[in-house]
Every structure is written in structure tokens, then in C-alpha cells.
Known about the structure:
Elements: E1 3-4, E2 7-12, E3 15-20, H1 21-33, E4 38-41, H2 46-49, E5 64-69, E6 72-82, H3 87-106, E7 110-121
Parallel strand pairs: 6-7
Antiparallel strand pairs: 1-5, 2-3, 4-6, 5-6
Helix pairs in contact: 1-3
Amino acid sequence: xEVILMAVKIQxxxxxxxIENDVIATIVGGATTDNYGVVGMASQNPxxxxxxxxxxxxxxxxxxxxxxxxxxxxxxxxIIVGYGMKISEISKSVQARxxxxxxxxxxxxxxxVNVTVQGVRMLGD
Length: 125
């Protein structure tokens, strides 16, 4: 069973912690855009939000989908990469960085990080 999350809930001895999806999207977006070769985040729905739009920090949530599955949290990331870059290496780097940052900053273990490359841009465009 798969559920799109509005918030991740963590129960501790002191009480409950809720982390909203926008917070997760901001952390995922920051981890993603810090990778060499990533030009920016893309919308998960390019026809609605604009095919050529590169998302900034205020709307990273349009390019990130967080789902709760039986095995844990799954994250989908939509990116635009630089022309001439090795897409497979960039994608692997994004996956590792997103998993690490979610674990270190929020204590969330992502069972999957799926990267969708939605475009290629000349650097400097």
C-alpha cells in the first residue's frame, strides 16, 4: 500500500514530532541542487507548471514527491542536468546525498530515492 505523505510522524519518549512535506521537500531540494551537474529542480507536472521552469527554494515541493510505503519512505526527485554531464553519475550522486541528508537532518530513512531527469540545459542558460 502506498500513501502520499502530508507529514512524517516520529514518536519519541518525550512526545510526537511531525515534519511537514514542505520541510522534507526543501531538504531534498537543497541536497539535490548541491550536486555537481544539477542545473536545478523541475516540476513533477511540467505541463501545468511550465515545461522550462527551474524551481527555486520556495517551490521545491513541486519537484519532490514523498510517499510512505510498507518498507519505509520513498522519495521521487525531478531534476534538470547540465549538457555534456554523465547523467547516470549525477543521478547516483543525487540518490546518495538525498538519503544521507534525510537521515542526518531528520532521522528519516529513505528506502528509495527515484531520480527523474526531465531536461538537459546548456550551462549558463
